[in-house]
Amino acid sequence: MKSIWYKNPAENFGEAISVGNGRIGATVFGGTGHEKIYLNEESVWSCRYSDRNNKNAKEAVNGIRAVRHQGRELEATELNCSCVTGDHSSQEN
After folding, report:
1. Cβ contact 8:15 at 8 Å
2. 37: which strand partners?
3. What are the domain boundaries of the chain?
4. Is the pLDDT of residue 7 over 60?
5. What are the residues whose beta carbons fall under 8 Å from the beta carbon of 55, sequence distance 6 or more?
6. Stated pTM of the model
7. Is the CB of residue 39 less than 8 Å from the CB of residue 26?
């Protein structure tokens, strides 16, 4: 596990680092005595929930693992991108 350590807490939003997964995120700043937490979720901006779960992911995982164990990393990565990552077809253009 990789870690990032800072000597001082972020005093304002501009100094803070946001964390998230593309659908939900947070930014924490202000220090331990008075911290602020900004939360964000994608439907706040789109005004509706989008189910981006890829319906093919569960079935694809074992095949991707098999390809990876055979040392075919590029093919495994391409399969991962097409079969496991979120389905964006429900998003508006």
Report:
1. no
2. 28
3. 1-52, 53-86
4. yes
5. 87
6. 0.45
7. yes
